[in-house]
Amino acid sequence: MKTKQHQTPSYEGRPYAKPEEELVDQGLQFDIGTLLSRRGVLFAGGAAAAVGLAACTNSADAAGADTSAAADASDLTEIPEETAGPYPGDGSNGPDVLEQSGVVRSDIRASFGDSTTAAEGVDLEIELTLYDMANDNARFEGAAVYLWHCNRDGEYSMYSDAIVNENYLRGVQVADADGVVKFTSVFPACYSGRWPHIHFEVYPDVDSITDSANAIATSQIALPQDACDTVYAEEGYEQSVENLSQVSLETDGIFSDDGGASQLPSVSGDVAGGYAIALPVGVDTTTEAGGGGSAPSGGGEGGPGGTPPGGSESSGDS
Predict the structure, then answer these.
(1) Residues 218, 138 share a domain
(2) Are 142 and 291 in contact (CB under 8 A)?
(3) Both 160 and 234 in a single domain?
(4) What residue stretch is flagged as signal peptide (predicted)?
(5) Which of 28, 257, 299, 318 is most buried (most C-beta within 10 Å)?
(6) Backbone angles phi, psi at 106, to 5 degrees
(7) Which residue, 78, 77, 95, 79, is CA-closest to 212?
(8) Which backbone phi and psi does 248 adopt, to 5 degrees?
(9) Please, which pLDDT band fits residue 17 given cuts at 50, 70 and 90?
(10) How much is the average pLDDT of 240-248?
(11) d(CA 84, CA 79)
(12) Are the beta carbons of 169 and 109 closer than 8 angstroms?
């Protein structure tokens, strides 16, 4: 009689990293491997449709749509190094979402894991195009981006008391052959003391993402005022109206040095259909990264960094 051999469970031909655990608990590296294997299949199957897609893109450009980062990198500058703030969720100051299976995703509106609660607000598509400035501004294929921001109430998941058990509005994407990463999110609030913004960290490759000290760039996106004014007139954003009236790009503790000149994205869309922003991001690996990788220090509550409501941390620029 033959003895039945034990078989390691697999997904899409890839053996589980943790055979005793469920698929959703296989860890970040397994998720990334799945993402890259799918990307290879999509690339092979999508070549035949390239001409048709190009035609659609050209039509959109002719109609005035501007949802992609500038293709001309001739005047590109290095993205400014900024603080990761006291709510990074990358393990440098308390909780670490980057170790959780499921963090590699483009739609970051809902929590993953033990909760599926979704953040409310006006939809926002975020597109970053990464350029490797140490390699003649080549598109930075394979770089990993971790992006996060506050919700409609100005709260940060994993930190603010009301949503400390949520992990929404946080996610990781890996740059494609064009150096592009895309996220689907909601328009963040303006909380007291800070201009509306979005945080992100850039890592050289997928194997580096689990240690925040490996970040090669840490910066913030400054949201354009016209879009903010329109969105904050919507229900649920009432407090942002007053907060925005008390700050400007010139007085903000982060963007005041140059008014966010290289951190203001192009913007398109409207409240009904959602907004889209796009920003070229120059990354120079020959310069020292200094924004992330460690917990913030200094700056008490109400300081230049601002204070999100219900936060469990009140120090440092946020």
Answers:
(1) yes
(2) no
(3) yes
(4) none
(5) 318
(6) -90, -30
(7) 95
(8) -140, 170
(9) low
(10) 98
(11) 14
(12) yes
The answer as to whether 305 is a domain residue is: no
List, for residues 27-56, the tens digit of each pLDDT value: 665 565 655 554 443 333 443 333 343 333
Domain enclosing residue 111, as ranges: 67-283
What are 298's two structure tokens? 């200094």
| Environment class of 118 (CB within 10 Å of its CB; exposed 0-12, middle 13-18, buried 19+) | middle
Within-domain flag for 23? yes
- The answer to whether residue 313 is domain-embedded is no
Q: What angle do CA 20, 24, 28 make, to 5 degrees?
A: 95
For residue 318, is it within any domain?
A: no
104 and 152 both lie in a single domain: yes
